[in-house]
Amino acid sequence: MHATSAPDFRLYPSNALDTLAALLAQELRRPVPEQPLLQPEVVLIPQVAMRRWLQSTLAAEHGVAANLEFLTPGEFVARALECNLGPADDDLDMATTQWRLYT
């Protein structure tokens, strides 16, 4: 299977979930150079419901599935934007809400 990779991002296209889970298990076995040991591995999942299935599949493969952070694409994009642009303005903060009520 062909992997498209950037320094911190690997994409494995496939419709076979078992194949993707096995590839993820292989990748998690390899240490990432210059990554702190306690930093969680981020795994993108298409939906929240897949998290538990993937955790149990990885635990069956490794014996344990820990220090993994599962994000949906929306959560991943929000985190990337926040890291690059700073936190978003809260439209429901007290000052903004008061001004909107008076206008």
Question: Can you describe this structure?
Answer:
The protein contains four helices and four strands. With 103 residues, it is of the alpha+beta class. The protein has a domain at 40-89. The strands form two sheets. Strands 1-2 form a two-stranded antiparallel sheet. Helix 1 (17-29) packs across helix 2 (50-62).
Highlighted features:
ATP-binding, two-stranded antiparallel sheet, 4 strands, two-stranded parallel ribbon, exonuclease activity, alpha+beta, helicase activity
- Strand percentage, roughly? 5-15%
Q: Biggest sheet, open or closed, and with what strands and sense?
A: 2 strands, antiparallel
Number of helices: 4
Briefly note the structural class of the backbone.
alpha+beta
Keywords: ATP-binding, DNA damage, DNA repair, DNA-binding, Exonuclease, Helicase, Hydrolase, Nuclease, Nucleotide-binding
Pfam families: Exonuc_V_gamma
GO biological process, one term: DNA recombination
GO molecular function: ATP binding; DNA binding; exonuclease activity; helicase activity
Brief characterization of the structure:
The chain is an alpha+beta fold and 103 residues long. It is built from four helices and four strands; from the N terminus they run ββαβαβαα. Helices cover 47% and strands 14% of the residues.
Layout of strands and helices, then pairs:
Layout: E1 4-6, E2 9-11, H1 17-29, E3 41-44, H2 50-62, E4 68-71, H3 73-85, H4 94-102
Parallel strand pairs: 3-4
Antiparallel strand pairs: 1-2
Helix pairs in contact: 1-2
